[in-house]
TrEMBL record:
Official protein name in the record: Protein SprT
Superkingdom per UniProt: Bacteria
SMART domains: SprT
The gene coding this protein: sprT
Domain SprT-like positions: 38-187
A family per Pfam: SprT-like
PANTHER family according to UniProt: PROTEIN SPRT (PTHR38773:SF1)
InterPro entries per record: SprT-like_domain
Species lineage: Bacteria, Pseudomonadati, Pseudomonadota, Gammaproteobacteria, Alteromonadales
Length: 189
């Protein structure tokens, strides 16, 4: 359904969207980022047709890190997307992630504060975009998986994130093994 709308409106100008979605990314958008910007505009056109009124476009950034594909910040009318996952999963972004995140913004605009994936959000996903209201993606995240370092306990080796490792090194935290309860210590290199 979204693919059909995307094809039918692809030739339409998105100049209005770019004017309304300030601030724009500072660097020139990659082809994948431009495809997401186009998908956002198409999703908003579809939402406006379904809801019967104009909607304010969000600001958009491609600076999200970690394992999340995208996040919506409803009180700021802002969308953030993970550029690494985007480049590897363009179709999933334009057809699933973008509508998912836009529904969070629409839900807030229409209903105020609600549960993030509550019945209002689920209803918008189905009604406007004809999509199953899934709360997580199934993309391969190996390229964005956080680096870990080996720590030792009575059970053997346990991997700690860089963030936790740095806290240990600064003396701000100590971590115990969940299985044996022993304090974790950095494994010698």
């Amino acid at each position: 359904m979204l693919s059909q709308l995307f094809r039918s409106l692809k030739s339409a100008s998105t100049a209005e969207y770019h004017q309304a979605s300030e601030p724009q990314p500072e660097a020139a958008a990659s082809e994948a980022q431009q495809a997401v910007l186009d998908a956002i505009e198409l999703c908003y056109l579809k939402a406006e047709a379904a809801l019967g009124h104009a909607l304010k476009r969000p600001s958009v950034s491609f600076a999200l890190r970690g394992r999340s594909a995208g996040t919506a910040h409803p009180t700021e009318n802002r969308l953030r997307f993970n550029p690494v996952l985007l480049e590897q999963n363009l179709h999933t972004f334009t057809h699933e992630v973008v509508p998912h995140e836009i529904c969070h913004l629409l839900c807030f605009q229409l209903h105020g504060k609600t549960r993030p994936h509550g019945k209002e959000w689920q209803s918008l996903m189905r009604r406007i975009y004809g999509l199953a209201p899934r709360t997580t993606h199934s993309m391969d995240i190996s390229s964005v998986k956080p680096r870990t370092l080996p720590y030792q306990c009575g059970c053997g080796v346990v991997e700690l994130s860089i963030r936790r490792h740095n806290k240990v090194m600064r003396g701000q935290a100590k971590y115990q093994c969940r299985r044996c309860g022993q304090l974790l210590s950095p494994q010698p290199s």
